[in-house]
Structure formats: structure tokens, C-alpha cells
Design goal:
- The complex is a heterodimer of chains A (about 525) and B (about 150).
- Chain A is α+β, with helices and mostly antiparallel strands and about 525 residues long.
- Chain A has three domains: about 1-150 and about 160-185, PAS domain (Beta-Lactamase, 2-Layer Sandwich), CATH 3.30.450.20; about 235-355, no CATH class; about 355-510, Heat Shock Protein 90 (2-Layer Sandwich).
- Chain A has twelve helices and twelve strands.
- Chain A has a five-stranded antiparallel beta sheet, sandwiched between helices. A five-stranded mixed beta sheet of chain A has the order 7-9-10-12-11.
- In chain A, strand 9 (about 425-430) and strand 10 form a beta hairpin.
- The two termini of chain A are about 55 Å apart.
- Chain B is α/β, with parallel strands linked by helices and about 150 residues long.
- In chain B, strand 4 (about 95-100), helix 4 and strand 5 (about 120) form a beta-alpha-beta unit.
- The longest helix of chain B has 18 residues, at about 125-145.
- The chains are: A alpha+beta (about 525), B alpha/beta (about 150).
- The interface between A and B is medium-sized, with 22 and 17 residues.
């Protein structure tokens, strides 16, 4: 319940809440005060009227004694008429001691007061002597007053006071119309006054609250604008002192904030510039280094060819002048220059894969693998080789570079497979949401997982050169190509149980993001 | 022998003397080096081909039947020589084989764009190099049939 009320209140602004509460309070106060005031007014008016009624009745009683003594109605007509002339007096009645009507003027409805008259006369008999007028009966529309009429013996010092003799009764009926009229008047006047005051007070409160809430609203609007990112937002210094102070505090806060933001922005720009500069320097240095390596490797090819070529010529054309040891030494020279030639070619290939611009297209990896495998089988015709191609997700990459990867991985797999039995190489993969995983697995010598990190480094080898040839650059090239495609490479293996090289390639969708 | 009458079969454009010697030896083994001219830079190659400068006495119609062209050359580089040969109607029909140590994709693409007939990257191993050069000579001089107007 409380929660519902709270959430209801939360829908309104502070000004609205204050307004609703004050309006309700003031109107209830106005209503209450006018009701109380009117009730008091009406009570006073009623007692005045009753007093007046009694007074009139007593007057009439005094003036009716002669008429009752002489049983002559004529003596009382003048007084009765005068009584009737009072506002609100609707009937006058004079009766003798034996309750016989002597005079009756004005409209009376005896039925209206029937019960009360009897009760009043009853009480009169049982009670003591009555001298003044009483309210004999009251109906919805009128009051009935009655007073006894006594004979008044002349008061004289010579006469002993005798008790007066009851001559009869007079009664008047006083209409309540005046009271009703007065009641309405009092109510209307009270209500009008109270509500006028209520409206006036509300108006004043509204003015005051506006003076308080308007600057608050402006301030909160300013804060919202500042929060939304608007610059140079300043609040107007309006309204009561404390609110103006708050606006001032907000303004200083904004100044400090803007100062800090500008400072941060400037630092950020400087930092970015520095990063850009450093990156460019690094890239330039790296490029220079690669260019140097490339030119050096490239330029080494010609002298190497000369070394190999002229050794060969020496062996071919001047063998007669050489003994066997001389020939052997020349052959060592040739073997080494050839090996260096292959090394240089591998380095060039490695560098080339870093420089080459990647041209993305859909690559038929299964077709490519079969083609490469066939060529490898042709080179090693003495061996029994089998390639098992499993599920392969589509490849999105540079066809020549992917060819290089497969070439390297498949020739490695064949190289490390047993030569005395059929070598089974498995190519498989799993599709992923962002990247696909591919693997090339063999059942050869495998490797010790302790050295797995060496596998992908340039010139690092896990097996000795004498056992398996190769420069140790193949997997480094694979890693470079896959990295440039945005993928990852890793290996799993166990000594004498084979090895598996895994690589990932981002899906086409991911690549095009 | 008169320069004007001398028929040339192979023009070898190579600035490196050892590479040139190795190439010539390989061709000699196949008996293909008898009518070979070796020039050491691009400018000399152009003089020879268009019978200008030192070769002004030469008759253009006397060949060569094939040009073995290196790309990195002093004075005028191989790419420029290739462009000039393929731009001129008198020399356009002569097959040009780029025989270079460059493996740059850019060079390969540009050479083919200019109309090269073959692009070969020199192998480091002499046996392979010798085999490649000999096969080249055999193919372009004996296997390939040039248009009759080339003579």
C-alpha cells in the first residue's frame, strides 16, 4: 500500500506534490472553519430568536390580563395585532383559565403542535407556578411559545401581598423561516469568505513555490544537458539564495569539469600522436630490417650459385688433376653451398609471406591438399602414403598462402611418418561461429610437448638435421601466414605417437566485419 | 666476318660475369652458344637490338632468335629493355625470357604485363641452373617455331 502510494507520488514533480498537498489542506481547512463558524452563528441566531419569542409572548401576556379579566376579546385585539406584526410571528392565541379560546389570530395548524401542546400543558399541571414565557413546542417549521396571564393586584404598602390569580394563557407561533434564512446566509457568507481566503493563499503559495521550483527545474534541465554532453552549460543564478548558491556551485563544477576534460583530451591527443609516431618509427625500422634481410638473402644467391657452379666445373673439367680427397672436399663445398642456397630461399619465402598483400577468396582446401599431396607422393614414389580428408569448413583466405601452409604441413607430416609402413595423414576441421579450426595429423615420430614452443620459431628444430632435413622455417612460415589471416596456430604431439598441427582461420563473415 | 651478315641466335643480357659465364657454359654443353652475344647492361642491349651506337653497322633482321634478360641492370634496367622491345614492331616478335634472381610478385606481374614470353627465377644450385638454361635454349631455338617474317 505504502509502496503504491510512493510510486504514485514519484510520478509527480516536487512542485505538483506540494501543490496537491497544500490545496487539499487549505480547502479542508476552509470547509471545516466555515462549518464550525456557521454552526456557532446559527446557534447564536437561534438563541436570539428564542429569546425574542419569549419576550414577545410575555409582553402579550401582560397586555392580555384586562381582556381575560373581562373576558372581552376586543380588549386584546390591538395587542394581538401588534404582536402579529413582529417578523416571524404567524399566529396569536389567548385562552382563559379553563382553556377556552378567547382570541385566535393568524394561521395555525393545531395538528402540527398537537403532541407538544398536550405534553406542555401536562407539565404545567404537575409543575409549580409558572410566571414567564416558555417554549411550549417545536416543530420542523415553527416554535410555539406560551405564557400564563396573572391578575396584578395593585401593589400598595397598605395591602398585604396576595398571590396572583391565574387568568389564562397566551400563545404565539413563531415561524422558523427567519432562522432558515439566516442559517443559509451565514453558511454562504462563511463559505464564500473561507474559500476566497483559501484561493488567495493558494495563489500566494503557488507564486512562492514557483519561485523555488522554477530555478530548481532550470538547474536540473542544465544538468541534463550537461550530462547529454552539451558544452559550456551554465545555470542562471535565480531564485532564493540557497538555490542560487546551488546553481553557482553547479557552474563552478562545470568549469572545473570542462577544464579537466580539455586537459584529458589534450593529453590523449598528445599520447595518440606519440603512439602514432612511435608505431610509424617501429614499422619503418621493422620494414627496413625486413628489406635488409630480403636484399641480403637475395644478393647471396648469386655468389652461392657461383660457388656451387664453379666447384662443379672444377669437378667436371679438372678432375684429372684432383685426388680423391680433393674431390671429396669440393663435394663438401658444393653440398654446403647448396644447403645455404636452400636456406636463403626459405628465408626469402618467409619474408615474402610477410610482405605479400593478402587477396581473399574462397579456397577449395580439400582440392588444394589433394593436389599438393599427389605432387609429394610423386617425389617420394618409394613410399606408401595415404591422405584422409575429413570434414572441412570452407576456407576464406589467400589461395597461394594457404597452398604454402598445406605444402609445409603435409610435407612435414610425410617427412616425420614411418617409412616402413603406409603413412596415413589426416586433414580435418571443425566449423566455428567466428573461426574455423583445421588440423593436419600424422602418426610419425611426434615430439616432446616440452619443446612445443620451439616448433614455430625460425630455424628452431626439434629433430636433428642429420635425421630429417629442412631448415626449420616451414612452421614459422605457416605461423606467419595464419597470423596474417587473423588466425592462430598450435601443435600437439607425443614422442613416437605422432603430431597434430592445428590452425584457425576467421570465417568469411568475421573477415568482412 | 662482316658484322652486317653475322646471324645471332641468343642475346644474353647479364651484368654479373659469373652468372654470365655459368649460363654460357651451360648453353655450350648443349651446343647452343655458337651464335651468342653477351651484353652487360640495358643500354648496350638496346644498342644491339636496334642497331645503334657501337652496333650501328648491324642488320636488325639478323636476330636474335631469343633474348635472355636479367632485370637488375646498370644504366637501363631490364624492365625498360623489355618495354622497348615489345613496343617496337621490328623487335616485338622476338621471344624474351626474363632470367633473374628476383622472385618479386611485382616484377613477375609487370613483366607479363609488358609481354614477356617466359619468366624464370635463377635457381641457386648450379645443376638446376644449368639444366634450366639449357632447356630454355633448346626450346626457343629448336622447338619453338618463330613467324617467318622474323628472319
Amino acid at each position: 500500500m505504502n509502496r503504491i502510494f510512493t510510486s504514485f507520488l514519484r510520478k509527480f514533480t516536487f512542485q505538483r506534490q506540494l501543490g496537491i498537498t497544500i490545496t487539499l489542506g487549505i480547502f479542508m481547512l476552509a470547509l471545516f472553519s466555515s462549518v464550525v463558524g456557521s454552526w456557532q452563528g446559527v446557534a447564536r441566531a437561534r438563541s436570539n430568536l428564542l429569546e425574542q419569542g419569549r419576550h414577545i409572548t410575555e409582553n402579550l401576556a401582560r397586555q392580555s390580563s384586562l381582556a381575560l379579566i373581562y373576558a372581552s376579546a376586543d380588549n386584546a385585539v390591538e395587542a394581538a395585532n401588534a404582536t402579529l406584526d413582529f417578523p416571524g410571528v404567524v399566529s396569536v392565541e389567548i385562552r382563559d383559565a379553563k382553556q377556552r379560546t378567547l382570541l385566535s389570530l393568524g394561521k395555525i395548524d393545531p395538528a402540527e403542535f398537537q403532541t407538544q401542546i398536550e405534553r406542555a400543558s401536562g407539565s404545567d399541571k404537575s409543575g409549580g407556578r409558572q410566571t414567564s414565557a416558555v417554549l411550549e413546542a417545536e416543530s420542523q417549521n415553527a416554535w410555539r411559545f406560551s405564557a400564563p396571564v396573572y391578575s396584578h393586584p395593585p401593589s400598595s404598602p397598605f395591602h398585604e401581598a396576595t398571590s396572583p390569580e391565574l387568568l389564562g394563557h397566551v400563545a404565539i407561533t413563531l415561524s422558523k423561516a427567519t432562522l432558515t434564512q439566516m442559517t443559509t446566509g451565514i453558511f454562504v457568507a462563511n463559505l464564500t469568505t473561507s474559500f476566497s481566503f483559501a484561493l488567495l493563499i493558494l495563489f500566494l503559495i503557488r507564486l512562492l513555490s514557483k519561485r523555488v521550483t522554477q530555478p530548481l527545474n532550470q538547474l536540473s534541465a542544465c544538468m541534463e544537458r550537461a550530462e547529454a554532453g552539451e558544452l559550456q552549460v551554465r545555470a542562471e543564478l535565480a531564485g532564493p539564495q540557497d538555490i542560487a548558491d546551488m546553481a553557482h556551485a553547479f557552474n563552478s563544477m562545470m568549469s572545473v569539469l570542462e577544464e579537466h576534460t580539455a586537459k584529458i583530451r589534450q593529453l590523449n591527443t598528445e599520447l595518440e600522436q606519440r603512439v602514432t609516431r612511435r608505431t610509424a618509427q617501429l614499422e619503418a625500422a621493422n620494414k627496413e630490417l625486413e628489406e635488409f634481410s630480403y636484399s641480403m638473402s637475395h644478393d647471396m644467391r648469386t655468389p652461392l650459385r657461383a660457388l656451387d657452379g664453379f666447384s662443379k666445373i672444377l669437378l667436371d673439367e679438372h678432375s684429372a688433376k684432383l685426388d680423391d680427397e680433393g674431390k671429396r672436399l669440393l663435394q663438401v663445398l658444393r653440398d654446403n653451398s647448396q644447403r645455404m642456397g636452400r636456406l636463403v630461399d626459405d628465408i626469402l619465402r618467409y619474408l615474402h609471406m610477410g610482405r605479400r598483400k593478402i587477396e581473399f577468396s574462397a579456397v577449395d582446401i580439400a582440392g588444394l591438399a589433394s593436389e599438393i599431396f599427389k605432387a609429394l607422393q610423386a617425389k617420394a614414389s618409394a613410399r606408401r602414403l595415404r591422405l584422409e580428408i575429413g570434414m572441412l569448413p570452407p576456407v576464406w583466405g589467400d589461395k597461394e598462402m594457404i597452398r604454402e601452409v598445406l605444402q609445409s604441413l603435409l610435407s612435414n607430416a610425410i617427412k616425420f611418418s614411418p617409412t616402413d609402413a603406409e603413412a596415413v595423414i589426416e586433414l580435418g576441421g571443425t566449423a566455428g561461429e567466428e573461426e574455423n579450426v583445421y588440423s593436419v595429423r600424422d602418426h610419425g615420430v611426434g615430439f616432446d610437448m616440452r619443446y612445443v614452443d620451439k616448433l614455430f620459431r625460425v630455424f628452431e628444430r626439434v629433430h636433428p638435421t642429420t635425421q630429417y632435413e629442412g631448415s626449420g622455417i616451414g612452421l614459422a612460415i605457416v605461423k606467419r601466414i595464419i597470423s596474417r589471416h587473423g588466425g592462430r596456430v598450435w601443435a600437439e604431439g607425443k614422442v613416437n605417437e605422432g603430431a597434430a598441427i592445428y590452425f584457425t582461420l576467421p570465417t568469411k563473415e568475421k573477415n568482412h566485419e | 666476318m662482316n658484322d652486317e651478315m653475322k646471324e645471332v641466335e641468343i642475346l644474353l643480357v647479364e651484368d654479373n660475369p659469373t652468372d654470365a659465364e655459368l649460363a654460357i657454359r651451360a648453353l655450350k654443353k648443349s651446343n647452343l652458344a655458337n651464335k651468342l652475344v653477351w651484353v652487360k647492361d640495358g643500354a648496350e642491349a638496346l644498342d644491339f637490338l636496334f642497331a645503334t651506337g657501337a652496333y650501328s653497322g648491324r642488320n636488325i633482321v639478323n636476330g636474335p632468335k631469343v633474348i635472355l634478360l636479367d632485370l637488375r641492370l646498370p644504366k637501363v634496367d631490364g624492365m625498360e629493355v623489355l618495354r622497348r622491345v615489345k613496343d617496337d614492331t621490328r623487335t616485338r616478335a622476338i621471344p624474351v625470357v626474363v632470367l633473374t634472381s628476383s622472385k618479386e610478385d611485382r616484377d613477375v606481374a609487370e613483366s607479363y604485363q609488358l609481354g614477356v614470353n617466359s619468366y624464370i627465377s635463377k635457381p641457386v644450385e648450379f645443376d638446376e641452373f644449368a639444366k634450366t638454361v639449357a632447356e630454355l635454349g633448346l626450346y626457343w631455338l629448336l622447338v619453338n617455331r618463330p613467324p617467318s617474317t622474323a628472319k
